[in-house]
Automatic annotation (TrEMBL), chain A:
Cellular component GO terms, alphabetical: BBSome; membrane
Upper taxonomic lineage: Eukaryota, Sar, Stramenopiles, Ochrophyta, Bolidophyceae
Protein name: Protein PTHB1
Comp. bias intervals (Polar residues): 230-244
Region Disordered, residue ranges: 216-244
UniProt-listed InterPro entries: PHTB1_N_dom, PTHB1, PTHB1_CtH_dom, PTHB1_hp_dom, PTHB1_pf_dom
Automatic annotation (TrEMBL), chain B:
Name of the featured protein: BBSome complex member BBS5 PH domain-containing protein
SMART domains: DM16
Source organism of this protein record: Triparma laevis f. longispina
Keyword Signal among UniProt keywords: no
Gene Ontology, cellular component aspect: BBSome; centriolar satellite; ciliary basal body; ciliary membrane
Keyword annotations from UniProtKB, A to Z: Cell membrane, Cell projection, Cilium, Cytoplasm, Cytoskeleton, Membrane
InterPro entries: BBL5 (IPR006606), BBS5/fem-3 (IPR030804), BBS5_PH (IPR014003)
GO molecular function, one term: phosphatidylinositol-3-phosphate binding
Amino acid sequence: MSLFKAKDYWSTSLSSTSLTEYDTSSITIAELTILDPPQPQIITGSLEGLLRIHVPNSEASAKDLLLEEDLGEPILSLKTGKFIPTGSNSAASIGLAILHPKKLVVYEVISESNTLSLRKCYEHGLGVRGKHFTAANMCKGGFGRDELREGICVQSLDSRVQIFDLDVESFSRRLVGGLLPGPIVYHEKLDAFITFNSLLDVECYSFSALASAKDTNEEDEEEDKLANLKSPNHPSNTSVSSSKKVQASWSTNLGEQIIDIQIGSLEGSSKDIVCLGTKCIFALNDLGSIKWSKFLGYETISFTLFSNPKSNNTTSPAQNIIVSGADGNLNIYRSQKLIWKAKLADPNSFSIATFVSDFECSKGMITTLSDDCRLSVSYLGTESEKEGQVVKEGKEINYDDVDEEHRKLLGIIRASQSDTRIEPREKIIMRTQVPKRLDEPDKVHVLDGGFEHLAEKATRMPCSDGSEGILKITTKLFLTYTGTGTLKDVTVTLNLPDAVMTKDTCIKIDKLKGGSATPMIIDITFYANASVLPTVDTVGVTAMFFTASGEPRTGTTELKLPLFFFCRLQPATKEPTFKFKLDTNKQPIMLAGLFDDMMDVLMDEERAGVDASGTANYVLTFRYWVADPNGVPFNATVLLSKTSGRYRVQSHSMPSLWFISQCLCSRLTAYFENSEGANSGLELNYNEPHLPLQDFYNAIDQHFWWRLKLAENLSAQNDCAQQFRTIQKRLLLRFKDRNAVPLQQLDVLLAETYHKLLELSKEVENAQWSLKSSANELSCTTLLILLFIKLRYDMSEEECEVLSSNLTPNVSDCEACGWEEMVDSGMMSLLRTVLAKKNQDQTASAQGTTLQMPQDTAKLKKHISIVVDRIHKGARLLADE
Amino acid sequence: MVDNHTTMTMGQYIWQDREIRFDAAPRHLENRQGEFIIDSINSVEDTKGNNGERGSLVVTNLRILWIAHKNNRTNLSIGLKTVVNINIRKAKSKLRGPTQALYIMTQDVGNRFEFIFTSLVKNSPRLFTTVQSVERAYKTSSLYRDLKLRGSIIRDHQLILLPLEQVYNKIPDAWNLSSDQGNLGQFFITNVRLVWHANLAQNFNVSVPYMQMKHVRIRGSKFGKALVIETQPKCGGYILGFRLHPPERLETILKEIISLHKIFSVNPIFGVDFHEEESTPSLDQLKVVRVDDDVEIVDGDTNDAFAAYYADGFNGGENKEISFDDDIGLACEKLLDGWSMSSLWNVAGD
């Protein structure tokens, strides 16, 4: 890779047909004819036989071609020189020798009326006595130190040389080491031919020695041998051939194939033999010893020597070398030192022949013939090659595309820099659809086969044919995946309240298609539990899946079950054991309208019963599917004052008030939000002088009593089991004893204990069931109390949250921790923190003691009373900001 | 000077094969008369100037066209005469990564441009083979298109005919008036060109294709009325005068030349002949008609779409003065004051 380039002054293509080819010796530069102004001419001869003479001009034109002649035979080599015999009637002093494979022709070039033409001077057929001879190359020179004329030496393909002196054939000799012809050159000072043989030797054959030697003619030798064989007694006649054999004056092995040899003076005084190898260059002195050699480091193609005018020795100016490499570079050396390097103007080619000559434009112009038949006259460029100069301003830039790409890239950068993770776009969206009516009840046996426990607890309802059926409702769940591709193994989990049952709370979906595919629909059938009062009406639905990268992700939704799934309307009854009034600041809303969905599901005759003489607008009784232990169903009645927006909810049991009250409150809120907007200003007030705390305490007591009862029963069961095991042990001992003592009624005792154990177990089961049921009631009561507190003291949602998390309606009893101690601890923590008196430390935290089942509920009740009292006095549950 | 009764014709300059045009107007991409599409290859990337963009490479008998698929205003028109050489080498393409590509080195007035084309169709040598063989065919048929002086075109006083050439007329006794005394020779009038050669030296000849003639007319000269042929300025602007021996023949010969000129300068035989080796559907079936919009936006700014293609870097279109350097013994570009070749080399070489 060179910094500099050679610049073309003039160039032309020499290819006329697709077969055009040139060789290293196909070109020469000489002044064959005198032009105006005088200029040397470039003579080229192609292997297809086309001879051309060009003169370069600053602008390439048709005039540059002075002569074009098809000689009809391949031109192997061209030489100009003093080949024309003096005394002949030719005006030209310089002849043009052209080597064809089988002949050598010398022409003179005649200029007539601006046109050049060729005139043949003489022609030599090659080969001695008609023997085979095919030319390879030739050299010229004043053989025998003749200064007036020049001879030509042609070398054949098998290293025989034939020497011509003008129009006379001198002699022909076979060179010794020859197998293939190497380059050949005439050394004037030595009057010898320097050539290169197949043994990688440079050889020197003196002209005089060659001339006087007897040619070793194989055919003659063979004849001699034949004669010897015929008459073995006859002495062999070898005297002539042995006396004057062709012999090299000296030979030097270079160990490398030599491409070209030239004679020149590199360091001024003496003539050097310069040999170009494929990788190295060698300088030899007259005696054949190597003066120096230089490794060039690239593959060489051709070289030339040219005069360096600045050298001090004026008589014999030192010469520089141009070596052309296969990489397309021209390397210029002064002796062994590289002084310049230039890449050819056409970077994809290399020079197969290089000359330096003086043209009109300047002295020292470099003429190159490239491998792709391009003839160029060039000079050295001094400006370094500009790399990577790409100006793109001319291109139209699509700014929208650029902006878009920029934005995209910025997004990627931001996403990778920020700590917070961005929610992936791919998610599952779920939607639910609830029917307006209950399904046609299922026959009981439909649930056979694994779901008998459902059938046992589920609410019964008569089928259309009168037989006993099971109440159920089927809702639809729609699943949509927003990402592309297909999701595998999606799990949908249902979080059911106690009052709701279904066959399977976990639904597996094998494949869920993404994109714009229609959503997947899943039917879910719910059954109502006939022994649990409803607390909430929503079912939590969670879908879980794994993304392509293996991250678990979920989507959630809530399924709100309709009111008619939990209860139904009843002809109005009056059971005012428990009641409370709810005041609103708005006009009364007809109950039949407020609970229209409940009215819609009624049969006509039922409707008539409920809405006897239009009372349904003012009074509605709801009956839950649940009945108390005495078989009395739980009811709740809502009454509306005809004059003001005052509602009364009443029932014979306190827990059954909750679900309907909650429905009433939410429906009223929703109604006024729909009709008057979000800021309807609806105020709901609990209009009773006191909170029904006593009833709440009763529920607590009942629940607590059942806890104690259960504990007692469990203890008794434990004792009994102990006893049973002891009796068993004794009996076994006797059974094993060889000489056993009498049983002494131990077997009877075992049977009795066993029976007692069964009974106790039943009692434990009953107590567990009762505890569950009382827990359900307590849960409803707690929710109701929370609602009352909220309404009465006009609490915000946040405050309600705080209170309900301490006074939790979630009554779950386990051995480790019961509801009472949990709530007591919550109350204590409220009293010590937000509800603490001013002078007390508000930051004191609840004691880190383990929770234990209390002896009684007195403390708990007291604490609840204090909390309510403090709230009543205006304390707020949220710490001031 | 022009005789009233003599006709004169004007030839138009054919630029298609002699110029490189960048982002030319769509009408310049249409085939001119005598030009025909040899091959059209889709999905070729202009790796140098429009890397990443697909286009179609159209090879005609005069030029190589590359037209972007997206917008036909992004295009290249490379005249075959400007092509210096064609190579197949490795290149890096945005659309295909490192791949074999077609390198076309060209030389337009004073500047060298390099073009790299990559076929985006895997293992498709068509891009390489077609372009190379068409370029070869073009290079070896220059006699159809270029003026030639002193060529090797006559053998034994007979014109060596080109493959598509027919001789229409042969006129002896035609004098060439280039020198003072004139040269006697003869005319060959063919369907491609007008050839004159001297009787005495067959190497003294001229071959003028009709497409290179600018004017053909009769003019007065010191030898009397003469047939004058003026060639296109781009090929030298030569004025060739001939005198025909019986002067009456001048008019008829002029008429003959003019009518042939009218036909063949408009619809020339360009000499690039081809035949496909594989039988493919006819060109008409394959041809996709290019729809050209008739709006031409005249760009006020200098168009430097070609900047990316410079092979040597932009040298301002002019070469510097040549001077002889004593130190190195060779001609070189003139250096700035204070610099010598050796100081420059030592700076660069270290």
